[in-house]
Design brief:
Elements (H helix, E strand, L loop, with lengths): L1 H17 L2 H5 L2 H10 L4 H7 L3 E2 L21 H4 L3 E3 L10 E5 L1 H13 L3 E4 L2 E5 L3 E5 L1 E3 L5 E3 L6 E4 L7 E5 L13 E8 L25 E3 L1 E5 L6 E6 L6 E8 L5 E4 L8 E7 L3 E4 L19 E8 L4 E5 L5 E4 L2 E4 L6 E3 L12 E10 L5 E2 L1 E3 L3 E9 L1 E5 L2 E2 L5 E9 L15 E3 L2 E3 L3 E6 L26 E2 L10 E5 L1 H10 L2 E4 L2 E4 L4 E2 L5 E4 L5 E4 L14 E5 L9 E3 L2 E5 L1 E3 H6 L6 E6 L6 E3 L2 E5 L12 E3 L7 E3 L5 E8 L12 E6 L3 E8 L8 E15 L7 E4 L2 E9 L9 E6 L2 E8 L27 E7 L2 E4 L8 E4 L5
Parallel strand pairs: 1-7, 2-4, 3-5, 4-9, 5-10, 6-11, 9-12, 10-13, 11-14, 12-15, 13-15, 14-16, 15-17, 16-18, 17-19, 18-20, 19-21, 19-22, 20-23, 21-24, 22-24, 23-26, 24-27, 25-28, 31-60, 34-36, 35-37, 36-39, 37-40, 38-41, 39-42, 40-43, 41-45, 42-46, 43-47, 45-49, 46-50, 49-51, 50-52, 51-53, ...
Antiparallel strand pairs: 7-8, 27-30, 28-29, 30-33, 31-32, 44-48, 57-60, 58-59
GO molecular function: lyase activity
Protein name: Pectate lyase superfamily protein
Keywords: Lyase, Signal
Length: 802
């Protein structure tokens, strides 16, 4: 009893002091710098200060602080970068007997503020109110208030299938009973920094989802108890690095399993939702957005989703750009439609679409039903439907058995906007059609692995695995302080063990870290466990051949894993070092040459600054330009990549690529590919490649997204983002290729724009959509472009006999 009273007193203290946090940590001089730099009034500054994290100074400015909080009772976990929610001072009950809401909330806030992960040991945690996972803001050295990508809320549960972690919303919890007033059980949200206009009138608590970074909900289930008819299990409208993974939501007694979705470098994987009125609804949620507007970031990608017995609809979609759905399984007892697609306003003609791939929809009731009700164009490939009357209006199905939809492109032309006429058509080998394209067959049953082929296994490596070795423990004793050379200790651990765990830290290397075919290199969170280098570079700075920080074995049947790991490139070094190397960075992040069942999951491969954004440039320090690709996939390189994102403003040569795939035969799959803000010829390039699938693209730039040359069997499902190619160019450039498929092209642009607009820190201006094409094809020197008002729902170039 005394312990519980002490815990409650501590939690009350944390909550009471939270509002004064910013004022306590920022000196009066710093506060004035922030006010002036951001053009705030004194009142606005006072409102924002509690939500601004103090700048981290070292070992990487504006990065992560490596101090271990002494007040955490479970110090062994704290040293890894974890906050044990069941240990003092929080003591959340995992037996489901006592309300743990306040304890969990305090632990989340503490972990966020100290740049740690909240760990939920296996058990049931009773909650009675919204668990708010709010990302705050931080400041740069120059005083600019900015997103707090290194201060997210990361919630991780037990990875053991027999010891799941679950949040149970108590029966008849206050505020959750009204289905007309939805309330969220677990809500990932954030603060704004005045949006793009620097307007602080709405106050800090109005969310700004495009800077909602690195928020994670993993290996935790949500159960909605009885009497909560207005409850939503999870909401995460977020961007780069944000993801829900390995989650089951029991919404039987609730309204919606999941509301909104991540995109823009965020995605969701391996989620099951049982019951509820709606499984997944991508509409907005006030105050962030209107209830009848979109509630996602561009191109939400959702993989391995199971939706069971919703009473109204499995999916209601009003996404920004297309929703890319891969490996879904929908079971329903009602007559449908199980999928509803809603169009956006005429100014956003390409929002709200769907790409459904390798999926199963089963009607288990007596009457069968309708699969889809569509106001927007959609695309299906390799979708199996059982006992459905129709797929969509005008397309009959098989009400007594299976129908195999090999491919379906269903174009619906957008409404005109003012004098603008937009089109979503089907292009097959240069022939345009506004009619439905369908290949289907009755009788075929789905293969057993249709979902599993797109996911990792239940035995996926984790820091919780008993075989995982900690590189900071004896005999390796890696420092992880960003200064000490950890090359030999990391390499020794990799040479001697299969599962190698890097706790929170910066692991400086001066030579390439070489992985074995079976290596599983894992971190505690993608922003917290980082491999990086800094001058002096040792072997990385020698010779004429550019070296990677990390390199895999060149093996076709490998089982290599990178999981929740950062690989950082910093462009700053002493001036004499930069000059000696002719100004070009002598290394790059990752050489990936392994295939088979290899996986890259939740990586953070980033271009960043060692000294952040100071008020004055550090004396004696200069910057490299980027020339080598940040990631090079070659040789036997393949496998599955989940939630890859990279951006950052820097100087590049025209040859730079965020991702270069060359001379590979695959198979290689990206489950959400987000690459942006490079001023080079293209963000990414596939060269002399085969068998590459990209499920969901989101990007921003003023050059091009992808160049594909001399390649075969390349499939890109879904494109979105606020990007404009160079005048006269295109988002995609295909040169001498065979068997290319592009679906759900969904440009996001300002249709009112009539002239170029200069972009801060960018070499090229943003162009009006009338000045470029969605794609261009060059075969034997002959160039073909699509019209600039056309975003095809399906575009394919095949070999003559394909």
């Amino acid at each position: 009893m005394l312990k519980r009273l002490a815990t409650l007193f501590y939690l009350a203290t944390v909550i009471c002091h939270a509002a004064a946090w910013g004022q306590e940590l920022l000196s009066p001089e710093t506060q004035e710098l922030v006010r002036r730099r951001n053009n705030m009034t004194k009142q606005q500054l006072a409102e924002y200060l509690p939500y601004i994290h103090r700048r981290v100074e070292e070992p990487v400015a504006e990065g992560i602080c490596l101090d271990v909080p002494a007040e955490l009772a479970n110090q062994s976990m704290a040293e890894l970068g974890l906050v044990d929610v069941t240990a003092a001072p929080f003591r959340a009950d995992r037996l489901g007997q006592h309300d743990a809401t306040e304890a969990i909330q305090a632990a989340i806030n503490f972990a966020r503020d100290h740049q740690m992960v909240v760990f939920f040991p296996g058990g049931t945690y009773l909650i009675s109110d919204t668990i708010e996972c709010r990302q705050k803001l931080t400041m740069r050295g120059n005083g600019r208030v900015t997103s707090a990508a290194n201060f997210p809320c990361v919630l991780v549960g037990s990875s053991a299938p027999e010891q799941r972690s679950a949040l149970l919303l108590a029966p008849r919890s206050p505020g959750f009973s009204d289905p007309e007033q939805l309330k969220i059980a677990v809500h990932f949200t954030n603060c704004n920094y005045g949006f793009d206009k620097g307007d602080y009138q709405q106050g800090p608590l109005h969310p700004q989802a495009n800077i909602n970074y690195n928020q994670v909900f993993s290996d935790i289930d949500i159960v909605i108890g009885e009497g909560n008819a207005g409850a939503v299990g999870l909401r995460m409208q977020a961007a780069e690095g944000s993801s829900a993974q390995n989650v089951t939501i029991d919404a039987t007694h609730g309204h919606t399993g999941m509301l909104g979705a991540a995109g823009s470098g965020g995605s969701h994987h391996n989620i099951t939702i049982r019951g509820g009125r709606i499984g997944i609804d991508t509409h907005g949620f006030p105050p962030e957005s209107r209830v009848d507007g979109s509630g996602t970031q561009p191109t939400p990608t959702m993989v391995g989703i199971t939706l069971i017995n919703q009473t109204e609809a499995a999916l209601v979609n009003k996404s920004r750009g297309p929703l890319v759905a891969v490996g879904w399984r929908i079971l329903t007892k009602n007559s449908g439609p199980v999928i509803r697609l809603e169009r956006d306003y005429p100014a956003n003609p390409y929002n709200g679409g769907l790409a459904l791939i390798d999926s199963v929809i089963q009607f288990t009731g007596e009457l069968g039903g309708s699969v889809c009700e569509a106001e927007k164009s959609f695309y299906m490939r390799n979708v199996y439907v059982e006992q459905a009357r129709n797929v969509v209006q005008g397309i009959a199905a098989n009400p007594t058995g299976w129908m195999h939809i090999k491919e379906l492109a269903y174009p619906i032309q957008p409404p005109n906007f003012k004098h603008h006429h937009f089109q979503e058509s089907v292009y097959i080998n240069g022939e345009r059609s506004s009619l439905t394209y369908l290949e289907a067959q009755s009788g075929n049953t789905p293969p057993q692995d249709l979902t599993a082929r797109h996911l990792w296994s239940d035995s996926f490596a984790s820091f919780q695995n008993a075989k995982a070795i900690n590189v900071k423990s004896p005999p390796y004793n890696a420092a992880g302080d960003g200064v000490t050379d950890d090359t030999s200790t990391l390499q020794k651990a990799i040479d001697e063990h299969e599962i190698v765990f890097l706790p929170k830290g910066y692991y400086r290397v001066t030579d390439t870290i070489r992985l074995r075919p079976s290596t599983k290199l894992i971190g505690v969170a993608q922003h917290l466990s980082n491999i990086m280098t800094r001058a002096p570079y040792g072997e990385l700075g020698k010779g004429d051949v550019l070296k990677p920080l990390v390199e895999t074995a060149n093996t076709a049947d490998a089982d290599t894993t990178l999981f929740r790991l950062g690989i950082l490139l910093t462009d700053e070094a002493p001036t004499e070092t930069v000059e000696r190397l002719d100004g070009t960075m002598p290394f790059y992040a990752l050489s990936w040459r392994c295939g088979g069942s290899s996986i890259v999951r939740s990586p953070h491969i980033a271009r960043t600054h060692l000294y952040g954004y100071p008020r004055r440039q550090k004396e004696g320090i200069d910057k490299f330009r980027y020339s080598a690709p940040a990631v090079r996939i070659s040789g036997h390189g393949g496998g599955k990549w989940y939630n890859f994102f990279i951006h950052g403003l820097a100087e590049e040569t025209d040859d730079y690529r965020h991702v270069l795939v060359e001379n590979t035969q695959g198979p290689l799959a990206f489950y959400h590919l987000h690459a942006q803000h490079a001023d080079s010829y293209a963000q990414c390039e596939f060269r002399n490649c085969a068998n590459v699938n990209v499920y969901g693209v989101k990007t921003e730039y003023q050059t091009r997204f992808l160049k594909v040359q001399d390649s075969n069997n390349i499939n890109i499902f879904g494109h979105g983002g606020n990007a404009t190619p160079l005048r006269g160019s295109a988002h995609y450039v295909f040169v001498d290729c065979q068997n290319i498929t592009l679906t759900n092209m969904s440009d996001q642009f300002n249709a009112r724009q009539t002239s170029p607009i200069s972009m801060a820190y960018r070499r090229y201006p943003a162009q009006p959509y009338t000045s470029y094409s969605p794609l261009m094809v060059i075969n034997d020197g002959q160039e073909i472009r699509l019209p600039n008002n056309e975003d095809p729902i399906l575009w394919r170039q095949s070999t003559p006999n394909d």
